[in-house]
Design brief:
The structure holds two protein chains of two kinds. In chain A, 78% of the residues lie in helices and 0% in strands. In chain A, 48% of the residues are buried. Chain A has one domain (65-291): MetI-like (MetI-like fold). The mean pLDDT of chain A is 87. By secondary structure, chain A is mainly α. Chain B is mainly alpha-helical. Chain B folds into two domains: 2-39; 51-277, MetI-like (MetI-like fold). Chain B has 13 helices and two strands. Chain B has helices at residues 2-40, 43-48, 61-92, 95-110, 113-122, 124-132, 140-164, 168-176, 181-192, 194-210, 213-218, 236-243, 251-277; strands spanning 51-52, 57-58. Chain B has a two-stranded antiparallel sheet with strand order 1-2. Chain B starts with a helix and ends in a 9-residue tail after the last helix. The mean pLDDT of chain B is 87. Classes of the chains: A mainly alpha, B mainly alpha.
């Protein structure tokens, strides 16, 4: 009897925990839709300016989210544009060429890089501006380029790891086919191995995009500001969606601004949801291929 | 052709070594900018010292206490819930439901931190203020509760992968003996998956220590050493974010590099501990 009761407690508690977590998720979503759902529309993004004028840069958007959305978009494109090729190359090296103690040391370093809190990466990016400030005559302050660089440090280990894991999990039969027919190592990698693990690499890239899009701590230290307008150059400060949400939560001046904050939060959640669906589809693709 | 393949190897190696060295460069950068503080007062007196810039005291002890108390409290709240959810996702739920449970958990991991913080500012903080702790509602307890929700998916993913990878032969044997699912869980899966469970806990602690936004938005950021969980506190990460706006040459400013160093060293300890607990663990899904 005694044993039955503690077993029942574990079952109940476990289901309770799961329901608790799902309830929180559901609650967050419903709350954001209720408070921010009404703001969703072209006014939220473009403010009082007509969308066409804003997109053609004929008029500046002051009371819309457009600068923050464009800022985040440019930032993510830049960061992923830097991290993806470098991470891919590093991942290929780790899986195909590195061995022995070099591989051990490198993978330990990537583990540390992956584990570093994002604020530490941000601090490193900030130190980089201080350093550049010392050696270069013209002023380079915190700006879009530095933020993108720091963000690419943040997401690079994910790209390296997903590339490496994907390459290492390719079955031996497939791995040896092309070399047996006379292909070089490079040809084997480029024409057989990489195409074969494209979904895994894309999955890793989507994860990286998600991390880059949601991160606030890194950009907070490397050049994001609350109002900068559309990003005009790589060497200027910029706006970003997650930072805007953070800023509104502490500094909102009137109910309208708060409303926009809720709209922005809902927008970011939906964007991350879309990324999640893409990552999920990619995974289905991988699994189907594995079964085949 | 040979030139091309040699060139490509060089490029790959450069990418790998370059990004590996980056990890070391981050450490050196922090060391060099924080150096004046490290030579003026010893690193350890800095760790144990008080924060009082007016009197020239730049100890980061209050922040260390803040970080540790928020992280451990969050872990304390999160661990049972995460364990329970991982049991549901591996054993207790019928198989189709398990996938659904895992899907929800993975989605939770993808929800931006700032959204948890934002919703908590408008829902949890007023609740804490009026019902539980009083004061401003911005305190260690509030931050720890939200952080617990934030780190739960990380831990659950680790627990689930550990519980799932128990040898199928053992599972079949236990099933054949007529064990109920809960018995299988308690007497076979948990003992077998122990290394993964410990890794998950270490990972969760690492994420909790490293998080900036939740404590910045919800813990109140007071510089005094917190005496209870209903006190306002400041974490190392929040301290970096708050001080960065100050002018660049002051000692106050240098102290954030000491915070950075402490966080860096903590990360290294976490990585070493993970490798020691379960060598070759698949860390990809973090």
């Amino acid at each position: 009897m005694m044993r039955k009761s503690y077993e029942r407690f574990i079952v109940l508690f476990s289901w309770g925990s799961f329901l608790f977590l799902s309830a929180i998720l559901l609650f967050i979503f419903i709350y954001l839709v209720m408070r921010g759902g009404g703001t969703i529309g072209s006014r939220l993004v473009f403010g009082d300016v007509s969308p066409l004028d804003a997109l053609l840069l004929r008029q500046r958007v002051f009371d819309g989210l457009l600068p923050a959305i464009v800022g985040t978009f440019v930032l993510v494109v830049l960061a992923v544009g830097i991290a993806l090729p470098v991470g891919l190359a590093a991942g290929i090296y780790m899986a195909e060429y590195a061995s022995g103690w070099i591989k051990k040391i490198l993978s330990a370093l990537f583990d540390v890089l992956a584990g570093l809190p994002s604020i530490v990466i941000g601090l490193a990016g900030f130190s980089l501006t201080l350093f550049l400030h010392k050696i270069l005559p013209n002023r380079i302050g915190p700006c879009l380029l530095i933020s993108a660089l720091a963000l690419s440090f943040l997401i690079m280990p994910y790209v390296v790891r997903s590339t490496q894991m994907a390459l290492e999990s390719i079955p031996l039969a497939l791995r040896h086919t092309a070399p047996a027919m006379g292909a070089t190592r490079l040809q084997n990698i480029l024409y057989v191995l990489l195409p074969n693990c494209l979904p895994d690499i894309l999955g890793g890239a989507i994860l990286a995009i998600g991390r880059a899009a949601e991160d606030t701590a890194v950009i907070m230290l490397t050049g994001v500001v609350a109002s900068a307008g559309l990003p005009r150059s790589l060497f200027e400060q910029f706006e970003a969606l997650p930072f805007y949400i953070y800023y509104i939560s502490s500094q909102y001046a009137n109910p309208e601004e708060l409303q926009m904050g809720f709209g922005a939060a809902l927008l970011l959640l939906v964007l991350c949801g879309i990324l999640f669906v893409f990552a999920f589809l990619m995974e289905q693709l991988i699994q189907r291929r594995m079964l085949r | 052709m040979r030139l091309l393949s040699r060139l490509s190897v060089t490029v790959f190696r450069l990418a790998a070594f370059g990004s590996g060295l980056l990890t070391i460069a981050v450490f050196l950068m922090m060391l060099s900018f924080g150096w004046p503080l490290l030579t003026d007062g010893q690193f350890f007196t800095l760790l144990a010292g008080e924060w009082n810039p007016a009197n020239g005291l730049f100890g980061i002890y209050p922040m260390v206490v803040g970080s540790i108390s928020i992280a451990f409290l969050a872990l304390l709240f999160s661990l049972p819930v995460s364990l329970g959810t991982s049991f549901v996702a591996t054993v207790l739920a019928p198989p189709p439901v398990r996938r659904f449970v895992l899907g929800i958990i993975r989605f939770m991991a993808g929800v931006p931190t700032v959204i948890y913080g934002f919703v908590a500012v408008f829902m949890l903080v007023p609740f804490m203020r009026e019902q539980i702790t009083g004061g401003s509602g911005l305190n260690i307890l509030t931050a720890a509760i939200v952080l617990a929700v934030l780190i739960a998916p990380t831990m659950i993913v680790f627990f689930v992968s550990g519980l799932k990878n128990v040898k199928p032969e053992y599972c079949l044997a236990v099933d054949a003996l007529g064990a109920r699912p809960v018995q299988k869980l308690i007497f076979l899966l948990i003992p077998q998956a122990w290394p993964s469970i410990v890794s998950g806990i270490i990972m969760g602690l690492g994420r909790a220590m490293g998080d900036t936004l939740i404590s910045l938005m919800l813990a109140g950021n007071s510089i005094a050493i917190p005496a209870s969980v209903s006190d306002s506190g400041r974490t190392l990460t929040a301290h970096i974010a708050l001080v960065i706006a100050a002018d660049f040459s002051s000692m106050e400013f240098k102290s954030i590099f000491a915070c950075g160093l402490v966080l860096y060293i903590f990360t290294v300890i976490v990585v070493v501990a993970l490798r020691w607990v379960s060598p070759g663990q698949d860390l990809r899904s973090i």
